[in-house]
Each structure stands twice: as structure tokens, then as C-alpha cells.
Amino acid sequence: MHPSPTPGTPQGLPGRWSNWAGNQNARPRREVAPASVAELAEAIGAAAADGLPVKAVGSGHSFTAIAATDGLLVRPDRLTAVRAIDHAAGTVTVESGLGLEKLNQLLEHAGLALTNMGDIMVQTVAGATSTGTHGTGRASGSLAAQIKGLEIVLADGTVTRCSPTENAELFQGARLGLGALGVVSAITFGVEPAFLLTAHEKPMAFDEVVGRFDELATENEHFEFYWFPHTEGCSTKRNNRSQGPAAPLPGFRKWFDDDFVSNTVWEGACRVGRAMPRTIPGIARIASKAWSERTYTDVSYKVFTSPRRVRFVEMEYAVPREAATTVLRELKRLVERSDWKISFPVEVRVAPADDLWLSTASGRDTAYIAVHLYRGTADQGYFTEVEKIMTAHQGRPHWGKLHTRDAAYLADAYPHFADFTALRDKVDPERRFANDYLRRVLGD
């Protein structure tokens, strides 16, 4: 089972906003959907004149309140232009509201590709990069790590461009800026010639996967696995580049495995488990054995991503790569000695160290460990106890997923935290882009 969000848009009635999972809500005083950067800048200037805070939303796939506001809510629905594709430079420049799915389709048509992807592509480019969306990779990092340039509207309405050679300090912070520095209006990504990936999916036992974790993460370009709580079963996935030929899954097999079973059947199983928790261990045992070994080769983004419709809430922590197996064993023991009934698998991915100030992989090779609860399921302490394990191992929470960390903790967790907050003081001294979540994680 591949637990990831599903295609969707922010829900809500006029004057109200809620995220995809339905666990975050807001009542903005006004909303705007600018059709140009000039209109965006004008809307931010008007909000400033009226003393309103400003937040931009994407597709609503964050589980935290990072996009919530009671002031001006900016919807980027009409900021979707592709400004430039430069084959020679290996870049594409797109506006902030463009969805990742559309971006990937456009790149495929142009014979290009992003180097790495997360496991869904329903987010907007700005929403995904601003929260640190990542996939798994031995040597390739998050979406934000692939940014070569940005256009951002600052608190005073100034449209500012930044890159490693232009407004370099702003570039360092804004690539993964949490929406705290301004509203991103366009992004230039580094891209490369289109490539194929061969996926090898294989069931394995927990002890074998954990025992071979370093080997599997090192030998494969993109390795991830899912452990099914209450069982010894894991589902592993290894994605490596291929010279071809393409050999995608047959249409019916792809639909049956990745849509019908992974979404329709899994939704039903989760509903049964929520209504009758005692059935969950049995469901988990069946699920852990339901996935047979398979291999297929396809265009990169079609291998990285899959459709997801089962809704949940999630906590994910980034821990030092060398701590991963210790954390996983502690997590397994925690579940085994508890009375919890956990229906969703635990997801494990990796990333190389990067230099982004607020990246969860900043300065260290990283393992990501994510836990999930089906929507409407009572937590009963699962996330709280998992978080204790993660923080005991220098864990950094994903900015868009549930956690309880504050600025005091995060200042110690990130070597460039003070650099980011100093930059924020410089470009948004009045906290035009603040909300309750940012006040908690960045301070006021």
C-alpha cells in the first residue's frame, strides 16, 4: 500500500477554506485569484493598506495550518503560465499555481523531466516546494532542491527575482520559505532530458529490509518501503534509470493494482477498521501479503507517482540517515507493546544532504519516516509517542505534516534557522505573511 494524498482541491463554502484532509479550516476575510503578477502585487498592497495578513494556498495537501489565514487568501488558480523552456540551459520557468501533473506532462512533451518527484503530483509547484515536498533518492533531493530561480512578491508589493547570482540571500531562504517571506509567483526548475525508470516492487520481511537498509538505499537510485504495523511484512520499491525499452504495466493491471486495490478496496478496508478496530491486525496481515512482486519500465514521473484517493492525516519526521534503523526498530516495538490498532503502513524514504536553510535534509543525509491515521480515526497517543522517538533522534518534522514542535526546538534542529529568521525580519518586519502556525514554528 502506498499511503499518499489524492487529487483534490481545497474544500469549503464561500468565505471558508479547508484542506484536503479536512483537519484544517479557515475563514479568510477576503479572497483573490489574480490572473497576473501585477494583480497579485496589487492585492498584497491592498491587504497591507487594510492591515490584513496574507497567505497563499495551493491544492490543500498540507496537514498543518501553514496556509490558513483570517485575512487575505490568495488562490493561484490563474497563475499557471509556462513562461519559458530552455533546453540549452536545462531549465523551465512556470508560474506558481501550475500543478505538478500538468508540469510533468508539458515536460514530457518537450522531451524533459524533473530529476526527482514525490509520490503524488496534484500539488501546485509553489505549494509543494514551499513546504519541502520530497520523494526518495540516493543522490537527488526534494523539489525545492531543484529550483534554479524564483520570482516572489514581497510584503511591500515589490516583485523580486532571485537566484544564486541575484538576491542570493533571498534565494537561499525562499526556495523553501514556508510562505513566510512573500508569495512566490514563478519558479525556475532545473530539468534534464526525459528518462525512463524501471520499478521493481517486492514484498520483504521487516528484519530483512531493516538489516539491509543501508545496502538497499545505496545500491538503488530511489528506494522506499512500507511496513504494515501488526505484521512482519513490508512492501519495497526500487526505481532505477533504464535505457529501455519502455514496458509499462498493462492498462488493466495498472488500474486494478494502483487504482482499484490501492484506493477503492483500501478505502473499504480502512472504513471497516475504523468501525471495528479489532479487525485491523487481520486486515494488515492480508494487506501485507496482497502485493506480489512486479517490474515495469515507464516515463519517470509515471513511476515516481501514483493516484491516491484514500484520505488520512500524517506525521513525518526526517532523522539522520544513520539513525534510521534504530528509529524503525523502536517504532515497531512501540506499536507491538501498545493497544493501538494501526491500519496504515509506515512509509520510509531517503534523501541526500542539501544546502537549503529550512530543508529537512539541510546539512545531513536523511531518512524520512512517516506515520498515518485514516480520516476520522482517534489518535489515542500514536502520533505523540512516535514524535517522542523522532525527537530523541534529532528529528526534523515535515513542515506540511502534523507535529508539535516550536521555534525553540527547531532553532536547535536547523543550522541555518537564525539565518532564515533574520531574513524574515528584513523582508517582512510587519509579519504580513504570518499566521498562527508560522508564529509557532518560527517565532514572532
Figure out the total of helices: 14
What is the share of helical residues?
Answer: 25-40%
Uncertain residue ranges = 1-9
Relative strand content: 15-25%
User: How many beta strands in the DSSP annotation?
Assistant: 20
Describe the structure.
The protein is α+β, with helices and mostly antiparallel strands and 444 residues long. The chain is 31% helix and 23% strand. It has 14 helices and 20 strands. The longest helix is centred in the middle third of the chain and has 25 residues, at 251-275. Residues 1-9 have low confidence and may be disordered.
SSE blueprint:
Elements: E1 17-18, E2 25-26, E3 30-32, H1 37-49, E4 54-56, E5 72-74, E6 82-86, E7 91-95, H2 100-109, E8 112-113, H3 125-130, E9 147-153, E10 159-162, H4 168-174, E11 183-190, E12 192-193, E13 196-205, H5 206-211, H6 213-219, E14 222-227, E15 233-242, H7 251-275, H8 280-288, E16 294-299, H9 300-304, E17 312-320, H10 324-336, E18 346-351, E19 366-374, H11 382-392, E20 396-397, H12 407-413, H13 417-427, H14 436-442
Parallel strand pairs: 3-5, 4-5
Antiparallel strand pairs: 1-2, 6-7, 7-11, 8-12, 9-10, 9-11, 13-15, 13-16, 14-15, 14-18, 17-19, 17-20, 18-19
Helix pairs in contact: 10-11, 12-14
